[in-house]
């Protein structure tokens, strides 16, 4: 919709007085800010010796959560891969192994290309069973492209590392997000 | 003309015998249904197609004060149908003179919502892991007609799954809504009656007799028929989510019935074939052999690049070097003695390919012989339904043909047009030694069919070019062995056993180093550029009166029946 004349308010810069034209009050004002900072708490961090403390909703490296029995929670529904705007998630589904009574389907492979990922967190939002989460691990490095393609074992190991270190407690619990994540019926 | 009013819209039904669902479909109104299927008997058990009906007589509408299952209620002249979707009807259509107290569509809508709530009571919420999700009628209708929450306070029924139902099909018992389409299919179409409903009330389940699993040649159709994700094909189970699949209308190359199918592919890999409704070709169904018979295209034994025999061993060749050599060798053979050159066109080729190859060689010399490739026949035509003893029962509802190729009629028609006669492959086999060149355009999914036709090893012709998927007796003796393309990997036209012409589009790209038969015909016949199916189709239409309507590029997807006097 184009703007009309009535939508616009014209503002004129106020005219400088004698004091303003001297610039001295402005210089003093600026110096006050500088001097004030000399007595404030320092904000500079000595990275990498000193690591930053990130908020828990920081979107860093992904992890695949484990359930109480240590198996991957993922049911290979492809919701994350469907939601992913960067198409960086590749899943191969398979019938769940024999002993897994509570589910029929599990991911045979689960690969995320961390270089392709834009860390938007849509996968976490799409997951119906809270299996994928973004952690506060931010210093992601690798020596080759292949190293940055994380497979299922690597993503599960991120879970182990982050939960052991206590940096990223499991944020969500099965059943809280939606009925699809409801616990299996008691037999 | 008998007229039915669907949501106020008048529809002329002519002399057809229709029910409310079909009449509504004519008017462009969808009545939701699960158990009703046009190919099966009507049981009206799902109660989803509830409609309000009435009569328009002498300018007055009398509505029946209760809802009726639309699938079981026939319509006649003056029938008024009001569906649950009345609120969405076209307001430009003049309203019928209803009773002022009557609120159209309200009862039907309420009834459908109640039905859906009942169906969903015990339905597990495992859409994320269900293969049907995305094409599930239960999902669609509960989105349109249902409520978002369940009021059930008790625990859901969770009967155990039945993977033992069949070697090809598994049953997720808890997802079943007991529409009994699968049961009716095995009773009415295949006649084998393996499936049945056991139990009563909320304990009803689909099951088989112990030791009598669902094993018949049409069993895969129950997966297509299932409106929810209860019956799953083990072949497709968990391989893809359906919203990734690209659906292409295609024709099954499995036998000469030429079933209309939908080919579901993702990234040029075929994952699933489904039957497409085509009353002219096969009806609503397809056989298991065709449904699961696409795996040969993904076989590791399949030849995916051209090979040339150098010093008795196969060496991979590249097309840029191979093509001039091939063309030179063929040209020379034709020039020296055209009578000793033969071209075999297999019944797996499309009409366009056969025409382009055949006319290309005939242009080189009129004396080159065109031969119809081996026509595989396995057993006898298999008619369904069958009785308990396995004997076919009239009326026949589905036939699996013995002739295991899709286009014998089409290729034979092309041969008759180009040289006036169809030379069978058998008459050529004894002459192999005398030939100077033989071009074998094969594409046989089963190498045994070629081996059976060739029989004992003969002295091979001096130049033998074989285009085929798998090693055969013929390809072993060949000078050049070229990769072939499957029916899913090309555009073309097939003519089925009854002369029904069906065009189809390409569903997937062939392997990179593969050249289609049509492209090769272009390369050999000095037609420049990329193979153009539409151009060849126009040529065919011009040259052959029987195919005249092929020039009309926008053929209906269901195909046209041609009367081919030649075959």
TrEMBL record, chain A:
According to the UniProt record, what class of enzyme is this? translocase
How is this protein positioned relative to the membrane? Peripheral membrane protein
Residues given in the record as [4Fe-4S] cluster 1 binding sites: 74, 77, 80, 127
**The record's free-text note on cofactor binding:** Binds 2 [4Fe-4S] clusters per subunit.
Q: Catalytic activity annotated for this protein?
A: a quinone + NADH + 5 H(+)(in) = a quinol + NAD(+) + 4 H(+)(out)
**What EC number(s) would the UniProt record show?**
7.1.1.-
According to the record's subunit comment, the protein's assembly and interactions are: NDH-1 is composed of 14 different subunits. Subunits NuoA, H, J, K, L, M, N constitute the membrane sector of the complex.
According to UniProt, the name of this protein is NADH-quinone oxidoreductase subunit I
Automatic annotation (TrEMBL), chain B:
Show where the 4Fe-4S His(Cys)3-ligated-type domain sits. 107-146
The Swiss-Prot or TrEMBL record lists the needed cofactor(s) as: [2Fe-2S] cluster; [4Fe-4S] cluster
Signal sequence, start to end: none
Q: What Pfam families does the database record attribute to this sequence?
A: Fer2_4, Fer4_Nqo3, Molybdop_Fe4S4, Molybdopterin, NADH-G_4Fe-4S_3
GO BP, one annotated term = ATP synthesis coupled electron transport
Keywords (alphabetical) are:
4Fe-4S, Iron, Iron-sulfur, Metal-binding, NAD, Translocase
Q: Which residues form the 4Fe-4S Mo/W bis-MGD-type domain?
A: 245-301
Q: Cell membrane: present as a keyword of the record? A: no
SUPFAM superfamilies the UniProt entry points to = 2Fe-2S ferredoxin-like, 4Fe-4S ferredoxins, Formate dehydrogenase/DMSO reductase, domains 1-3
What's a GO cellular component annotated to this UniProt protein? membrane
Give the SMART domains listed for this entry. Answer: Molybdop_Fe4S4, NADH-G_4Fe-4S_3
The GO molecular function terms of this record are:
2 iron, 2 sulfur cluster binding; 4 iron, 4 sulfur cluster binding; metal ion binding; NADH dehydrogenase (ubiquinone) activity; NADH dehydrogenase activity
Q: Which family does it belong to?
A: Belongs to the complex I 75 kDa subunit family.
Q: What is this protein called?
A: Ferredoxin
